[in-house]
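Re: the request from the purification team.
They wanted to know what the chain is likely to look like in 3D before they choose a buffer screen. I agreed to run a prediction and write the result into the notebook, where they can find it.
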Amino acid sequence: MIDQDIKSEIESMDYLQMLHINRFAPPGHPYLQGEVGGFFVSNMHEKGKLIGSSGRVAASKLIGWDPPVPFS
């Protein structure tokens, strides 16, 4: 069972915020583990469909591949 506060926080994120976590979170980040991870990925996928492929590409280019220091 996923905590309602965690669900609400994930649901309130936009695709760009979710992509940032997906790309730069350290190993073991709680949003990418177990049931919460499945919920996160499912929500990210749905939000990605809403913005379309061009929106996903734009988000990816915006955040790049160089991780921020430090990760927050």
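For the purification team: Residues 4-22+31-63 form one domain.
Please add any questions underneath this entry.
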